[in-house]
Amino acid sequence: MIETLHAPVILDIAGTTLTADDRRRLSHPLTGGMILFARHFESRAQLTALCAEAKSVRPDLLIAVDQEGGRVQRFRTDGFTALPAMRTLGELWMEDAMRAVQAATATGLVLALELRACGVDMSFAPVLDLDHQDDATRQSVSPVIGSRSFHADPRVVSLLAQSLIQGLALAGMGSCGKHFPGHGFVSVDSHVGVPVDTRSLKAILAQDVRPFEWLSLSLSAVMPAHVIYRKVDSRPAGFSRRWLQDILRDRLGFAGAVFSDDLGMAAARVIEGRPVGYTEAALAALEAGCDLVLLCNQSLEHGGRAIDELLDGLTEAMAQGAWTPAIDSEARRAALVPQSAPLTWDELMLAPRYLEALARLP
Predict the structure, then answer these.
(1) What is the CATH number of the domain that holds 246?
(2) pTM
(3) Looking at the 3D structure of the chain, how many domains does it have?
(4) Is 96 one of the catalytic residues?
(5) Structural domain span for residue 18
């Protein structure tokens, strides 16, 4: 088995328990995390056992999920609280700003405490995309973002996101702002197509980038968009050194971890008009400045062949000197794994701060 000081791959598993193939992949030295979806959940007890089993294979594994609230909430039964969509918090802001701030903190706290009680380390939240509106219809330009966004105003987005981040942090959980530098201005869904934003860099920096700039010290991680910003770079942001190094790192001073978005998405499989495989996409993301690369929903396809292809491909690239593991990237990954012990679910049901947070949800 190879030895490495950098485990960049975040992968998924087949079902609600670990198979032999899941265990083999999780124990691979290039595997640093596991992402969960609704199909991995039957009950809290099962989820807790699954996370414990995964940690027994890899104790420092980062277990993550998209538990934003609203329509993107993977776990929502057997005691999990139905969390508000971020738009709900933005609408509350227009009525009572300080109540909205409290509600955002409460949302982050409830989200994180419930996940951590079951062994999940991190949620890919908050969404920092702006809810750009079509002037004619007054509907969201981006259907895939829509109600996942707090607001169209970057100041409102930033203040509510800061409050949600505080709630996550109170429970010992990090945060991940997405989708840098902003997915809200394009209508194409990057899961199925390649969105192109034709605005100038000046316009993007003045609007969509603002939350990432203002929260650069607060965010634990950032996830770039699979969007091409044509006037800035011919590559999607997640494959662009200009976006990730020159702008995110150097200009905004962001020092946390950078995740690629899912490399299985359609927009991640084309670079400069040319179709690419999983390994080439991962290498492009890592070279551009991503610390970690996600490959989601592939464990059920052809026996997880795409996951093995990626792990084998990165192993070969490292052996041939085409990719060099980054110690700094591994340190950023490790920093996302919570250091404090979580409350158990039974303890959580009696915790005064949790109960107060529930009462403050909108």
Answers:
(1) 3.20.20.300
(2) 0.95
(3) 1
(4) no
(5) 9-360
